[in-house]
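Please supply some protein, with fold tokens.
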Amino acid sequence: MSDKKDFVESVRQKLEDWDYQRDRLAARIEDLSQEWREEAQEKLADFKEQRKDLEAKLEVLESRSEDAWQDIKDGIELAWDGLKTGLLAARSEFEDKDK
């Protein structure tokens, strides 16, 4: 298996896990006050957009030749880090407000 294929599979698995975590957070925000719920829903909408952007980058990566894929790998890793950090921060923020 190529490095490119391994990388793509790894990112797809991370996205699957991220979707699960996002869905769990979405279910938990229903218990928040109206004010916090609206803020959380806005953040979730932002995360969905970021995820779409990451998915688009992943599709570009898959279409690249084996030699050229390294060019956008770093961009995908940065996008993933931003997505993951944002979700963790939001989950932490809204879990604190839930108490």
Summary: Residues 60 and 72 are 8 Å apart (CA to CA). The mean pLDDT is 82. The radius of gyration is 16 Å.
